[in-house]
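Posting for a labmate who doesn't have an account.
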Amino acid sequence: MFGLGVPEFIVLVIIVGTVILVSRLFKGPNKSLVSERRCLVCQYRGTMKTWLGNYNLPQFIALVLLFAYVLPGLIFIGWGWGKYKCPTCGALAKNVPADFNPN
């Protein structure tokens, strides 16, 4: 009843492909999937990878949600987009750029 048929799947593939293509075209030279950051939980300072772009579990969850239910999949991708994961403590989105100074 709420699953995807062939026409909806084709439209979804076209939309996702267009979003990926546009995001790669407009990606600046300083934007990267790996960044120098500082964790606010364990005070780790070093490179961190984006959660949705580099780890298999969130990519699998996003794919399943997109194929089963389109709207929750888009919400999950929007929520997880651009969040960095600490390699030592595993904290998600609890970090700032390494050169960030709040004062």
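Reply:
Got it, the structure tokens are right above this. The mean pLDDT is 78.
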